């Protein structure tokens, strides 16, 4: 970022749209942005994504998955700004406390401060009350499976929270980097079903659709947005992140994006093409329900029930 050049004593380039000092370079567009133009650009692009993807409709109650980290914080701030004048849409926040010692306590406090400042209704759920133990307890001896186990349990917890809040949509803070990483990870695993899955599709009331308003915004843009808005919080990294395949993919994709700007966006667009082909071929297929818990799923047993079976062995 341009701010890093200033700290290093290097000259800071001017914004491509005005004469103010730039705070960020957008390599795909080959342009620099100052703080006001960065804020305006991010808000405009998120607004366009919401409109183009039909993410929000009149009468919706949007449950924002608020971990307290940078992405979910930016998401809540942006939705609050973009939807503040709309009386036909309601926003609530849902925070999941997985029970990760020395980590989650700080992010939950950050989330609580944010919703208090914005005046947004807040729901907090813990793994202990939902699943009978903290994530630390569940993972004891299974640390290498941390991200896959946490992902399944956290998804269920967010859905439960959104249902209890009376939400019609669940908004998550997945950014362009996250989405591109997921595409590549699913390709590496050979998981075509997950690659083509569209969690935002209408479900006929079977489950709450997820929306990702930040899906076309880079991680570095979100960090810069929070910094210039004075909303940056220096929080610890999840201690289980070292076990994730995503960590390796993130480093690889970051290097490719630097050398070939637009790589992440092209990966995301390729997934949309695959999703379109698969949804056409699978049109009319009946939706299944888990044989154990009855939740909607794509197979005989949902991911959560399969996980519970494997943990009880």
CATH topology of the largest domain: Rossmann fold
Number of strand elements: 9
Identify low-pLDDT runs: none
CATH superfamily of the largest domain: HUPs
Structural class: alpha/beta
Helix content: 40-55%
CATH C-level name of the largest domain: Alpha Beta
Question: So how many helices?
Answer: 13
Strand order of the largest sheet: 5-4-3-6-7
Radius of gyration: 20 Å
How many angstroms does the end-to-end distance come to? 49 Å
Q: Which term fits the overall shape?
A: globular
CATH architectural designation of the largest domain: 3-Layer(aba) Sandwich
Description of the structure:
The protein has helices spanning 2-7, 35-52, 70-83, 104-118, 127-131, 135-139, 146-164, 176-189, 192-196, 219-228, 245-259, 263-281, 303-311; strands at 24-26, 31-33, 61-65, 90-97, 121-126, 169-171, 210-211, 288-289, 296-297. The protein has 313 residues and is of the alpha/beta class. It has 2 domains: 1-33, no CATH class; 44-282, Rossmann fold (3-Layer(aba) Sandwich). A 5-stranded parallel beta sheet has the order 5-4-3-6-7, with helices on both faces. A hairpin with a 4-residue loop joins β1 and β2 (31-33). α2 crosses α10 (219-228) and α8 (176-189) packs across α12 (263-281). The protein is globular and about 65 Å long.
Characteristics:
313 residues; alpha/beta; Rossmann fold; 13 helices
